[in-house]
Amino acid sequence: MANIKDVDESAALLSAQELRLALLQEQMKEADKQEKLRAKQHEELTQFTNSFLQDQVSDDEIAMVRRLVMNAVKNGKYEALVYSFPSALCTDSGRAINSADPQWTETLQGKAKQLYERYVKFARPQGYKLKAMIINFPGGIPGDVGFFINWAPDTK
């Protein structure tokens, strides 16, 4: 909408109808801008989903996990959030993870399943622990799943 400083004070007074039309035009511009943003976000989510479900975990993604762990160590932490993805990409939309069901790993698919399998094969034998949890609840429903790697000593 026009800034007050942009108003020509010497111009003729606009009618109420003209002001309503100007307001409607501004609202339509904003709605168009929001629709373009939603379309872009939808396209990005579609690309992410396709990659998540069809591609293999890349060397870059493994390197990112290692960097996140090392950054946590540098910050004196024993745990790091190393991966997140929409809960909708679990076969049950994250319900098993949210309720701490012991069978939650069976709901994983795509890259999440691959990362879990890599954890079982490489990290768990080295003493690491993995937990998955819902990390946000947009609109009160499970949003994203977070994978947390932990290397704290056992407190038994």
- Give the proportion of residues in helices: 40-55%
Q: How far apart are the termini?
A: 63 Å
Estimated radius of gyration: 24 Å
**Ranges with pLDDT <50 over ≥5 residues?**
none
Q: What would you call the structural class?
A: alpha+beta
Mean pLDDT: 92
Number of strands: 3
The gross shape turns out to be: elongated
Please tally the helical runs, counting DSSP H or I stretches of 4 or more residues: 4
How do the SSEs run, as a string of H and E? HHEHHEE
The major beta sheet can be summarized as: 3 strands, antiparallel
Strand order of the largest sheet: 1-3-2
Strand content: 5-15%
Structural features, described:
This protein is of the alpha+beta class and 156 residues long. The chain has 4 helices and 3 strands; from the N terminus they run H-H-E-H-H-E-E. It has helices spanning 16-54, 59-74, 95-98, 110-123; strands spanning 79-86, 129-134, 144-150. Strands 1-3-2 form a 3-stranded antiparallel beta sheet. The longest helix has 39 residues, at 16-54. It is elongated and about 80 Å long. The mean pLDDT is 92.
Secondary structure elements and pairings:
Layout: H1 16-54, H2 59-74, E1 79-86, H3 95-98, H4 110-123, E2 129-134, E3 144-150
Antiparallel strand pairs: 1-3, 2-3
Question: What are the salient characteristics of this protein?
Answer:
elongated; 47% helix; 3 strands; alpha+beta; 3-stranded antiparallel β-sheet
Q: Could you write a compact summary of the structure shown?
A:
47% of the residues lie in helices and 13% in strands. With 156 residues, it is an alpha+beta fold.
